[in-house]
Amino acid sequence: MADTTNAAVMRRPPPLDPVLLYTLATLLAFGLVMVYSASAFVSVHQAGYSTYYLWHDAVNTALSVITLTVVVRIPTAVWRKISPYLLMAGLVALVMVLIPHLGVRVNGSARWLSLGVINIQPSEFLKLFLVLYLAGYLVRRKDRLSEFTHGILTVATLLMVTGVLLLLEPDMGSEVILWAVAFGMLFVGGVRLSHFLAVVLSGVGAGVLLILASRYREDRVIGFLHPFARAKGDGYQLVQSLMAFGRGGWFGRGLGLSIQKLYYLPASHTDFLFAIIAEEFGLVGVLFVIMLFGILVVRAFQIAEAARQDGDLYSCYVAQGVAILIGLEAIINMGVDMGVLPTKGLALPLLSYGGSSTLMSCTALGLLLRIDRERKAQGASR
Amino acid sequence: MTGPGHYFIVTGQTGFGRSAFVMTLMLLSLALMAVRAFYLQVLDAPFLRHAARREAIETVQQEGHRGMIVDRHGQPLAISTPVDSLWANPRILLKEPAVWPRLTRAIGWRTATFEKALDAQRHEQFMYLRREVDPRYAQRVLALRIPGVASQREYRRYYPAGAVAATLIGFTNINDQGQDGVELAYNSFLSPRRGRAIVVRDGLGGPIAVRRGREPPRPGHTLVLSIDERIQYLAYRELLKAVRYHDASSGSVIVLDARTGEVLALANVPSFNPNTRSDLDSSYYRDRAVTDVLEPGSSLKPFTIALALQSGRIVPHTLISTSPGSYWVGPDKISDVGNFGLIDVSHVIAESSNVGASKIALTTLTRRAMYRNFLRLGFAHSTHSGLPGESSGFLSPPDTWEPIQKATLSFGYGISVTPMQMARAYTVFADGGILRPISILKAPPQSPGRRVFSRTVVSEMRHMLELAASPVGTGANADVVNYRVAGKTGTAHIADTKGYHRHRYVASFGGFAPASDPRLVVFVDVRDPRKHGYYGAQCAAPVFRKVMTGALRILNIPPDNPVTTMARAHTRWS
Questions:
Q1: Cβ partners under 8 Å of residue A247, min gap 6
Q2: Which end of chain B is more exposed for a tag (fewer CB within 10 A), N or C?
């Protein structure tokens, strides 16, 4: 009897990290509410009833939570083993997106693959697969990272390939995130600063060239620099977003009372959800959301550090990658909405409407929870 | 192999040092976002809020509807019916090509036409889709919930009586402002007060909420006219028939309530259809009964005779020699249509003798007395009907009169009057010698009026005018079955700058009934009749008879000639 009880206790996994869990739950729940608030009017106009986007978002969220519970049960070692294949699959999907009939075009961008009922956005998954792969890469090349070819050049080449593919879609937002996450991981992974700076600077230079070479991107940047001068043209979206912030004030207009979401601010339930939060909940709501992402970032780095001290470098790199990925996406989205960064098609992770983004973010957080649990399990077994 | 980066790895501090750096960088970025949010939401908020308000909040004028114009029984003569105009914001529509087929089907446009129009207006925020449609139709289109499509309420003026009362009622312009007739005269009374509302709009232009400070529009007042639509219709119909039959250029009929001075009917020909007045000459809009002057001719004679009676120098049986049917006043010859011989005053009127009338004037009346008499009868002054463009007529001052002018004035030449003035003057005989103001509004304040002739004179004049409208007189065609009718014909040459036309006339008839207790005064004029006779007896008297007959019946006025009734009934039965 005692044995059985003991075995049961032994087998029961340690509790999931409550800080992460509650933060995640808060973000997902708040996201659902805000997506409904932001999309109801548009939904009525497009579908004839108010809950079209709410239902889709609810199903996405449910699927993401289920995925998370599965991910939590998969050992980190498995991810490490399959990460090269995942990255390959991601790259193949990225190519497929560009093939007519396979890829789905929305607003001139081919970013989606149709899987019958749902469309998925491979670039979202590629970001996470890159984190998983790079973590393994950093561990494998740990001792040769200081060499330029074995350190940074391989990764840079990989990024060039994905970069070209993403440019063809085009999906500049994902491109920037991908590069930033990769360089961030290389940096914390210990690549020589001189190499690192050389590549980063050339990357920035290439980015500027790309911007200047493309009317579409140039317009966006100029619209970003002088939004009110182009309030009816390229700056329209940003101006509308800024107005939402202005209208929100300290405490906001109250839930549901945004006016900008009523066909003034396009993509108010996706890329510009943060602006609607600002309008309805004011500075208080904005600080709350910023705080939640701050907690996520800090917690992820703490988990990474715990893993490092445990000697599990792979988990450490994965946790750091996830921290950079989620944090950077949140920062860039906020920055875009507030006019400090040029307009990019990026979702606010865990809050915005968007199946692939939510699924990817939940998977990433699932990995974090798993890594944390493995620490606790080891600690318990010691 | 050693660099700054390597140092950290060696010490085992690397990872955490660098990762702490990245983490701090991210937290700083988040803090930067918080600062930016503070700037936008607190410091820059007034500017941003103002910009947002300018875009979403709009003060809208709300149009009320213009007041109705109704006849004395409430029958509508002018009503504003709500119509909707469907419009679209092309910039929004252009973003939603998927809805175009639904929209074009609903508004009945051809796809090619629609796309062309949309492209032409692609930089605009407003284009009409359909104007002035049934609001129910507009609702059906709006129910499709097509982004960028909206409707605006407008009012269309509609005139149920059409041409029948068009010259009296007038019309409004596209801005709902009265342009002529009663519509113009009472424009401010009929005009609605514009409402104001502060409306919050969504990005598609649809209203979300109405803010405080709302002033609801107030519809215009209903204007109740003295007109009786049934009599108006009758008057117009008969006048139109006569004008056509005689190939006349124009004509008017006025029906007055003898006791109150209310205008029961005021019809003009030519008229126009106020509901579709597109290709019409503006001369058709004129309310000729008040705007146009004429020399009345013999229908003015009774007023000279009455003045002479009033002076006491003659009585109805005073005999006047009209032989040989003409005589000379200085170099001018005054003539009758025949030689009536020695006739009394009653027959001067009945036979319409110019010789008789002028002789009475020349022998018994002073110029000043005649002048004052015309003024007291309301000539040479506006009747204050309130109708736009009313003419006051013309009469030269008495000091300038030569004897010939005094003579011709006695039978209605040398004075220009409006038909309205003539009708009003006849109320003096119908209403016991008192001239009252006329009114086109129902139940005007009772004015005591001004006595022009004594009761005795009026009673004598009634008998004479009855004789004139009997088979003995020129007005035999004015006879109304079952009623005693009094009235006088007039036939006058039309004058222009070159003098009198030899063969162009104004035929007129003024009279009232029932003669024993007058209730209605009718004045008819037909100008420039070219066929089937030109005398007042031929052109105007029949119109008078038909209008008077119908109006007496419509108003249920009891007959005052029952003997005739019995006799006719008897002959019919036997």
A1: A253, A258, A259, A260, A279, B45, B48, B49, B52
A2: C
For residue B384, which phi and psi values (nearest 5 degrees)? 55, 40
How are beta strands A109-115 and A103-106 bridged, if at all?
antiparallel
Q: How far is CA B210 from the centre of its chain?
A: 38
Backbone angles phi and psi of A165, in degrees to 5: -60, -45
> Coil, strand or helix: which one is B1?
coil
SS3 state of residue B186? coil
pLDDT (tens, 9 = 90+) of chain B, 574 residues, equals 333 333 333 334 454 588 888 999 999 999 999 999 999 999 988 988 888 888 777 777 777 889 999 999 999 999 988 888 888 888 778 877 888 888 888 888 888 888 888 888 877 778 888 888 888 888 888 888 788 888 888 888 889 988 899 889 988 887 788 888 999 999 999 998 888 777 777 777 666 776 666 778 888 899 999 999 999 999 999 999 999 999 999 999 999 998 888 999 999 989 888 888 665 677 788 888 888 888 888 888 899 899 988 888 888 888 888 888 888 888 888 888 888 888 988 888 888 888 988 889 888 888 888 899 899 888 888 888 888 888 888 888 888 888 888 888 888 888 899 999 999 999 999 888 889 888 899 876 677 888 889 999 999 999 888 888 888 777 778 888 888 899 998 888 888 777 888 888 999 999 998 988 999 999 999 999 998 988 888 889 899 999 999 999 999 999 887 655 455 544 444 4
Alpha-carbon torsion A48, A49, A50, A51, what sign? negative
Inter-chain touch B20–A301, beta carbons under 8 Å: yes
Place of tokens 């019995």: B566
Complex ipTM, two decimals? 0.91
- C-alpha A331/C-alpha B331 separation (Å) is 113
Catalytic residue, candidates B151, B250, B298, B358? B298
Of A189, A290, A304, the CB nearest to B33: A290
Nearest to B30 among A146, A305, A331 (CB): A331
Contact assignment for B22 to A262 by CB distance below 8 Å = no
- From the list A191, A298, A316, the residue facing B15 with the nearest CB is A316
CB pair distance less than 8 Å for B29 and A331: yes
